[in-house]
Amino acid sequence: MATVHRVTDAYRRVITGLPEAERAGADAAAVRSMIEELRVSLFAQTLGTPAPVSEKRILAALDRLSAR
Q1: How far is residue 57's CA from residue 10's CA, in Å, rounded to a whole number?
Q2: pTM of structure
C-alpha cells in the first residue's frame, strides 16, 4: 500500500503545478490510469494488467509530465 501512496502523493504534487488545461489532459489521465493499474497489479494479481506498470514507470511518466 505504501507504493500506491507514494505515487499518488507524487501525482498530486505534479498535478498541482500544472496549468488547468494540462490537468484535464490525456497525459494526466494516462498517469491516473497507471496508478489504478498499479493497484490492480498489487492487490488483484490474478487479473493482470494490459501493460507493464510499476512505481518506477509511473514516476518517470510524472517526470515527463512536469517537464513541459
Answers
A1: 13
A2: 0.90
DSSP line for 22-45: HHTSHHHHHHHHHHHHHHHHHH-T
1-59 tens-digit pLDDT: 899 999 999 999 999 999 999 999 999 999 999 999 999 999 888 888 888 999 999 99
Cα(65)–Cα(52) distance, integer angstroms: 19
CA distances from 65 to 18, 46, 54, 56 (A): 9, 30, 17, 14
